[in-house]
Amino acid sequence: MNRKQFAVATLFALVLLTLVLAPLAQQQGGGSYDPWLDYNEDGVIDVNDLHPLGVAYGTTGDSTKNVNVTNWPTTNELFPQNLVLRGTINMPWGMTTLLVDERPNALSSVFKSTYDEDNTYWVTQTPTVIYGKTYIYTYPAKHSFQILGRPFVHLTLNITTTEYGGVLVVEPHAILGTVNVAGQWTMISDLGNDYHYFFDPVPPDTQITSDLMNLDALNAVVGPLEQLAIRLAVYAYYPYGGSSGVSCAILCGIDTDYFTVNIPIVENP
Q1: Are strands 128-137 and 96-100 parallel, antiparallel or unpaired?
Q2: What is the DSSP string of 253-264?
Q3: Domain boundaries, the chain
Q4: Cα dist. 113→135, 136, 191, 200, 235 in Å?
Q5: Is the peptide bond before 264 cis (omega within 30 degrees of 0)?
Q6: pLDDT by residue (tens digit) across 97-154?
Q7: Using CA atoms, how far apart are residues 162 and 150, in angstroms rounded to an integer?
Q8: Around Cβ 247, how many Cβ atoms within 10 Å?
Q9: pLDDT tens, 223-268?
Q10: 3-state secondary structure 49-74
Q11: For residue 20, what pLDDT is reported?
Q12: From the candidate CATH numbers 2.60.120, 2.30.30, 2.102.10, 3.30.1150, the one assigned to the domain spanning 81-267
């Protein structure tokens, strides 16, 4: 009997042995299912699993089994979409500060290019807040979403001083957070600050821009019915002595890029 005939005979004997012993094994409880022995992966170890064994009988090779997984579930992608919000001032209804997105808005006619100016403050060496307000996104979250990446805020300010005071420092600062249905504020991330130096007097409406970003990437979840919000605080002071009246105006509007908030998000984390 040659090698091939021996292999066929062995396979036939194994088949017969399986057919004879299978009912007995079932009656007596038998061994437990082993997926490594289920070669055709149909959930049943039977005669069909003997065929690949017979075909491969007598072959040699590396006994290491390949257990590489190629169908891992997909994970959240970084920066899958970018939510762009614009700061606006709702002029007819009491100077309400808002963040709006790029969807068509029924009130868009009152959100056109404008500015929000705080009072004029007397500034000395002590840092003084010359502008401080919270801008709230008009749409509450319908479901939770994840902020994954580095949000940043782009600001455009107009600065004016009333008289000469020396070297003036203007320091914009922004914080990203949320406001819930009860109006409670929760901080998500401090987006940092920026510094602008003037040898005043500063001409009326001297324009400056700031880009504020936390260098650490965020991984934060915003819950249902929470509204994204940005708290702005602009500080001014004369570090080397001096004083003057200083005013700050925030330029904004849905048809401009004066005041934008960019937030990388993943929906349904």
Answers
A1: parallel
A2: -TTSSSSEEEEE
A3: 3-56, 81-267
A4: 16, 18, 25, 28, 24
A5: no
A6: 888 887 665 455 556 667 787 789 999 999 999 999 999 998 888 888 999 999 999 9
A7: 38
A8: 21
A9: 999 999 999 999 999 999 999 999 999 998 887 899 999 999 887 6
A10: HHHHHHHHCCCCCCCCCCCCCCCCCC
A11: 47
A12: 2.60.120
pTM above 0.85, yes or no: no
Q: What are the tokens at 74?
A: 């997909």
* Type of residue at 104: P
Tokens 């979409």 correspond to 81
Residue type, 163: E
- The amino acid sitting at 168 is L
Are the C-beta atoms of residues 64 and 100 closer than 8 Å to each other? no
- Which helix H or strand E contains 27, and what residues bound it? helix 3-28
| Backbone dihedral angles phi then psi of residue 48, each to the nearest 5 degrees | -65, -25
For residue 259, what are its two tokens?
């005041």
Taking only the tens place, the pLDDT of each residue in 62-107 is 766 666 655 555 555 544 578 899 998 876 555 678 888 876 654 5
- Work out the widest C-alpha separation in the chain, in whole angstroms: 113
To which residue do tokens 């009997």 refer? 1
